[in-house]
Amino acid sequence: MTEFWEKGWVRFPHDPAIAEWIAHALPRARASVTDPAYAEWLDCEGTWFIGVDALDNDAEGRVARSAPLSGQAMDFIAEHYGRLPLHKGQVSVVYPGYPRPRRGEGEAASKYRRNRDAAHVDGLRPIGPDRRRRVDEPHAWILGIPLTEASKDAAPMVLWEGSHKILGAAFARAMEGQPQDTLHQIDITDIYQATRREVFETCTRIELPAKPGEAYLLHRHCLHGVAPWAEGATAGTDGRMIAYFRPECAGGVAEWVESP
């Protein structure tokens, strides 16, 4: 699995432990899509259910009557990152027609979603009218677990291979010499946008479809997004549904920028 550190991602093959977990998680994930408590997460004119914190799991990943989330992916994470308490999982569902504009999204952002897969680094939320970015959520890693069958061109995860190295170095430069307790306040908008353009020019775009029972892990600095739903792409009535976990670094932004 050394390729993870070089490429910034790794896909794990079918794992019985993950498949068993999905058997418990899928009914709960499916129910969240129509739960009025999460209605705000249906966006892009009905083509994307964002589903943040919509899966009712505990800190070890138990959902319904499942065992803790386990298997090859979790073993790899524990070996290299230790064990972190899991937040409630995201239930990300994409439907035919994606992408359409998000609520309040201007033409430039909508074009970026269509042409650049809405590529981003997680945890850098735009804040205020000027949409300046800081490290708001210092995620340790990103784990994707497909819950439903879908064709390879049904809005798969996409990433820019090796981008974690370029972006990680840029973030380190932006925060060099600053007190650790102020790192979350540093405006990284300009260096992030400039480095993102460099990534588009120098890194290979990879589409990363996966089937239930498989899983994939992304480095937290990896530039990634979601491809458009291709003409002729297929999925069941649940759409292309993926559960995501991205717990935050115990050491905050300092660990986020400094650790591997």
Please provide a written account of the structure:
- This protein is globular.
- The protein has a domain at 3-118 and 137-158 and 206-248: Jelly Rolls (Sandwich), CATH 2.60.120.
- It is of the alpha+beta class and 260 residues long.
- It has helices spanning 3-7, 16-33, 72-81, 107-116, 163-175, 189-202, 252-258, and strands at 9-12, 42-43, 48-49, 90-94, 126-127, 132-133, 141-146, 157-160, 205-208, 215-219, 224-226, 240-245.
- The strands form three sheets. Strands 1-10-7-12-4-3-2 form a seven-stranded antiparallel sheet. Strands 9-8-11 form a three-stranded antiparallel sheet, with no helix packed on it.
- A hairpin with a 4-residue loop joins strand 2 (42-43) and strand 3 (48-49).
- It is built from seven helices and twelve strands.
- Helix content is 30%, strand content 17%.
SSE map:
Layout: H1 3-7, E1 9-12, H2 16-33, E2 42-43, E3 48-49, H3 72-81, E4 90-94, H4 107-116, E5 126-127, E6 132-133, E7 141-146, E8 157-160, H5 163-175, H6 189-202, E9 205-208, E10 215-219, E11 224-226, E12 240-245, H7 252-258
Antiparallel strand pairs: 1-10, 2-3, 3-4, 4-12, 5-6, 7-10, 7-12, 8-9, 8-11
Helix pairs in contact: 5-6
How helical, in percent, are the residues? 25-40%
Q: What general outline do the C-alpha atoms trace?
A: globular
- Count of strand segments: 12
The end-to-end distance, rounded to whole angstroms, is 15 Å
Low-confidence stretches at least 5 residues in length (pLDDT < 50)? Answer: none
Q: Give the H and E element order.
A: HEHEEHEHEEEEHHEEEEH
Largest sheet: 7 strands, antiparallel
The CATH architecture designation of the domain at 3-118 and 137-158 and 206-248 is Sandwich
The helix count comes to 7
Q: Give the neighbour order of strands across the main sheet.
A: 1-10-7-12-4-3-2
Structural class: alpha+beta
